[in-house]
Amino acid sequence: MINFSQDIEDKLYRAIKGSFPDAKVSDEDLLALAICIQRAKKSNGDLPDALRSINLAPYQSALDEQAASLPSNEVETLDHPQDGHRYYWVEANHVRHDPPGFPPFTGHLGMARVTLDERRPRKYKTAFGTIAPGDHLIDTVYEANQKYSRHLGYEIDRLDLITPAREVLRFAAISVLLGYKNKNDQRPSCYILEAGTATGQPKVLYLGREIGKPINAYSGYSPTPFACPNHAYLGTLTVKDNDDPDQLHISSRVIKNGASEQPYIDVTIRWTLQTGKLNNIWPGFLLARATAIVLSRAMKKTIPTDCSERVPSAPQAGAASD
Q: Could you tell me the pTM of the whole model?
């Protein structure tokens, strides 16, 4: 680790925390952002002023040393291990409708798929890093049934988790759990979305009672300063014939006086099963890019950031409705 001055540490912390209000920021997150800022400055990359103004020159040698073990390109190619896990290349396309004037952007990342233990929380080693208890709100089939069997009308027999892994850092805006009535079924019977933060903390679960049927729920947390806990999500997951996830469409909208406004943002996430070589991106690159995007949009001061208004008698965050 690098012993940054208090001023530099404060600026790095404010950049991340200001971009992701509900995130917990670690020393590793600060270092990753500093490495990426320094890289962007060297390559004359585009940076918002809030990041470009951070003077990292006194730490250049130390940052270069820390960055030496990282891939030279953002997308890293890995050998496919013989571990029985499935790996996906994920594309997330973000389109903001209101206010207008913001171009769409698309992010990519790798996800790994594991089958959760019935009762014992476990750590899973994957090509992309570790999937561990503490990084998820459900770690076993038993926990899922304790929470959701009464809503589903049956007990889940198998639960597959599809998620970004941890490489010291973790970038985890969304994970998916696929539930099966019988562990040998060819298709899942339900799904659970787990929303989290850019620094890897899981925050809220949303139950989808049937594949292809929408989840309609209050957000319950603030992933960015533009999204409030009292905003509502509409999300629908579809699955391919071989039970790989296909597409997740999420829209977010403001609720005023009990009525929905038009969605202000749509996010479409697509999964592609990776065979042969694997593509992956170091979570630090993802964190830095997301921070830069949020700060750039915040600088325009056109997107509302006031979450003070709360909806009376709002349903429990993550509660599903058909």
A: 0.93
